[in-house]
């Protein structure tokens, strides 16, 4: 089977068979160090990626590879515990495969989270940031190649790729939870190398506040499919050259663990206040 739409349909029908036919409101992608939230989902149905026909399988330490489906707050959610990254060798189309499956499942809302490096000197590790927009200067794009009209248009708008309405929801949720949230621009790098000091300076100069290795492909695929998308970054470290020590993945995971409680409260409040008309 080499038709993408047929593959997606096969993956979706497997998930439906395991999780039941009930409508799912929101798909959540959990970033490095933030995966624990999936453990809080009530009455979960858990599906390993490697059991889903046509699904890629994640290889990064700290990333589980499974879908958790159930209730969180008042919402029915499907949660990716572990995502696919370009640096693992997946094509961008493979990276966004699960997002397209979610669309096939009838899901209209996407909640992206990630761990990112902070390149805004006024902020600090442990801060959370609402992604207002992103920058992708690398040449590849998940929608490159044959266009499938079932997924959307060949050329599609990215003006509001992070839903202004959901940004406002996140702002209010943070206020309600007493979280000092930042808002900024996320810039994609391929990884797996962290950025050089000069790349971090370029990112700052062209208007980025955070740098990272994920989220942008998923947001682009979701935009083509007209899904409502929100993105939250956990700024786990200062970008290279902005802190007095070298970067490592341990720091990323440790900071994720440190802010886990605040992050969870924020996500829960965002889910509770997700506009009904989008559900
Ligand atoms: N750069 C890129 N990706 C990251 C970083 C970083 O500094 N921290 C966490 N993910």
Number of strands: 9
The CATH architecture: 3-Layer(aba) Sandwich
Major sheet description: 5 strands, mixed, barrel
Distinct small-molecule ligands in the complex: hypoxanthine
Shape: globular
> So, the CATH homologous superfamily?
Nucleoside phosphorylase domain
Helix content: 25-40%
Beta-strand portion reads 15-25%
Distance between the termini: 33 Å
* Secondary-structure element pattern, one letter each: HEEEEHHEEHEHEHEHH
Tally of alpha and pi helices: 8
**Highest-level CATH class:** Alpha Beta
* Sheet with the most strands: spatial strand order: 5-8-7-6-9
Structural description of this entry:
This protein has 279 residues and is α/β, with parallel strands linked by helices. It has a single domain, classed as Nucleoside phosphorylase domain (Rossmann fold, 3-Layer(aba) Sandwich). 30% of the residues lie in helices and 24% in strands. The chain has eight helices and nine strands. Strands 5-8-7-6-9 form a five-stranded mixed barrel, surrounded by four helices. Helix 4 (164-177) links the parallel strand 6 (128-136) and strand 7. Helix 1 (4-19) packs across helix 3 and helix 4 packs across helix 8. The protein is globular, with a radius of gyration of 18 Å. The model has no long low-confidence stretch (mean pLDDT 94). The structure holds hypoxanthine. The site of hypoxanthine has 14 residues, from strand 5, strand 8 and strand 9.
